[in-house]
Amino acid sequence: MVQVLTGGSVEFLGEMAATGLANMRSVFYNEAGGSIELRFYGDATFTNNIYLAIDNDGGSVRINGEATFVENGRSFDGHSGGGFSNTDGGIAIFRGPALFSSNTCDEDGGGVYNGEGSKMTFRGPALFSSNTCDEDGGGVYNGEGSKMTFYQRTELYDNWSKDGHGGGMDNRGELKFRGAVRATGNRCAESGGGISTGNGGTTTFYGWVTIQSNDAGTTGGGMSTYVVGSSDGGSVIEFRKPARVDISINEKTGDELGCNSVYVDETSSIIGFNVDDVCEES
Hints:
Structural class: mainly beta
Number of strands: 36
């Protein structure tokens, strides 16, 4: 394990691969104030590690090359982010293509966890497939007060939230898709099989949107808003005039009354697109 303490800095100038490691916390642990400048001018690959690959606790992580996170986190109890965890105001920037596949955790964010007050930016295309978590955000979790932006194509395939919201992605902060987004084959136990937005979060689509063949246990097989805990709600799903929107063939599989396509709770709103199958509480 590489641990960077407050004020420290590490740079990798070539390719880097970490496979099959069994560290006590993560392959890289970047403590508050540290700066792991992962300027991989080659590619960075994290595969089959017992615990999560990168735990950025308030520092800064930048990956310039292609980033690959596959089958990490399978034996890390009590932690979020099977592949990558960004917390305590941390900053993470992916400048090249990013792949998160078959990572797992027993809390939030099977592939990626972006904790409260933190910021993640994906400049290249991003693919999240077959990631699993026990709680919210099978592929990705974006927490309250946090920001996450995707500038190119984003794909969410076959991710699973076993007991929570957001099979593909769960957002409670600010989430922006500036490129096309496709969510297919994701599932969750609660609401938002493809993408869920809760507790006052905002999800904004600028490019093409395809949300198909996702399943939710309660409602909103494709997308949903929700309120949990002491939050006042007020979530927003907004479509900024994308050229194409396809929200179809999604299902809610539970016995509760609900929507197959999109569910909006009474505190929240959907703006800029008329979805045929939208349920709104009154």
